[in-house]
Amino acid sequence: MKTKVKVPSGRPAGHLICPVCGNSEEFIELARNVTVTTRYSQNQDGSFTPEENETDVQGEVRLLCGKCSADMTEFHHHFLDMIF
């Protein structure tokens, strides 16, 4: 089943704009119940270098305005589609 993506009506078409404060530059993706697994290699000097990261999100994911924290989750799928 394909998820219907709600596209914001900002200009240019699809430009995300906070309906509360008008912010169009800063956004926060908030994920709950996340497990992050990082694999490390130890170097000869005893320091560590991260080799691989895995993230498993089991909970709710929300999209918030980065300035006023307004809930913009209805546009989260559009947000994901526009990450390049």
Question: What features would you describe in this structure?
Answer:
The chain is mainly β and 84 residues long. The protein has one domain (1-84). The chain is built from 1 helix and 4 strands. It has one helix at residues 76-81; strands at residues 27-31, 34-42, 48-57, 61-65. Strands 1-4 form a two-stranded antiparallel ribbon. The chain has a two-stranded antiparallel ribbon with strand order 2-3. A hairpin with a 5-residue loop joins β2 (34-42) and β3. The chain is elongated, with a radius of gyration of 18 Å. The model has no long low-confidence stretch (mean pLDDT 89).
Strand and helix layout:
Elements: E1 27-31, E2 34-42, E3 48-57, E4 61-65, H1 76-81
Antiparallel strand pairs: 1-4, 2-3
Largest sheet: 2 strands, antiparallel
Specify the helix fraction band. Answer: under 10%
Rounded to an integer in angstroms, the radius of gyration calculated over CA atoms is 18 Å
Write the H/E string, N to C: EEEEH
Measured by DSSP, the beta-strand proportion falls in: 25-35%
Shape: elongated
The overall pLDDT average reads: 89
- What count of helical segments does DSSP give? 1
Quantity of strands, as a count: 4
Spatial strand arrangement across the major sheet: 1-4
Counting helices, strands and paired strands, the structural category is: mainly beta
Total tally of structural domains: 1
As residue ranges, the low-confidence spans are none
First-to-last CA distance: 24 Å
